[in-house]
């Protein structure tokens, strides 16, 4: 068993926050240069040239690439042979974020309450942290700062299995089309297919971590990536939405097995199921959210849908809300519906 101190993690994260906001990965720079060569629109070429110049200045002067330095989103592969000492992993991550955003003069963009009291937390915490347990004695920490411009254009859909490839294709293209200039193209499009309601968005976000030019190892999904990229770039949105052929630099797809009766799909341009685990009758400890739960339950049961949709006043047994601080320029919301057979067991080891 290898021991890792929380102070070491916090220091690494602090540096990571600054580096991620000052330096664009080489594969993205190469893709921008290739986009400049391919772009046919004079305005589009000029925009790409300005972006490349901005990349140089940010790296040379150690200033942010973008004024929106994003919410801190982490993907952590935690080796099962690692023992973290001296504190809590998530606290160490947040400590590093606070230090990095302060020392690096990075904009703090998280509000402490997403709905009722949107006050800036002033240190860009809490972070959004995805932890995956893996073999080994290492901790791999990936930070993907996520601004609200592209994030607000992201979408989730629960398609029917019969919608198939055509349904997936149409939803992805329509999402990018509707985003237009709001997502600050050229963009990288992450697509998550399968899993369930909360898994698909995580897959879409993880897809954005793949290097440009690396395709899904499954040839079928790789072909779909190429087709979607071609169709998106034929929309004519262009760099910064000013017209042209280079709207996206890449489309990356990640997939997971899913339920026989569903086809979850998420598009993230670059988790709300926990509430279902609360017992019926247990309200959110925050009185404001508890009142909203009560109001929503009353309104839903006044719809007259009733049991099995046959009419009546009992459409929902409970409305449970969980909330989390969010980026100052966004208000993410997700609704996940659980049937009355709410299977749930807990075990503590």
Automatic annotation (TrEMBL):
It holds the Pfam family Fumerase. InterPro entries: Class-I_Fumarase/Tartrate_DH, Fe-S_hydro-lyase_TtdA-typ_cat. GO terms for molecular function: 4 iron, 4 sulfur cluster binding; lyase activity; metal ion binding. Coiled coil: none annotated. Keywords: 4Fe-4S, Iron, Iron-sulfur, Lyase, Metal-binding. Signal peptide: none annotated. Residues 11-269, 270-347 form the Fe-S hydro-lyase tartrate dehydratase alpha-type catalytic domain. Belongs to the class-I fumarase family. This is Fe-S hydro-lyase tartrate dehydratase alpha-type catalytic domain-containing protein. The lineage of its organism: unclassified sequences, metagenomes, ecological metagenomes.
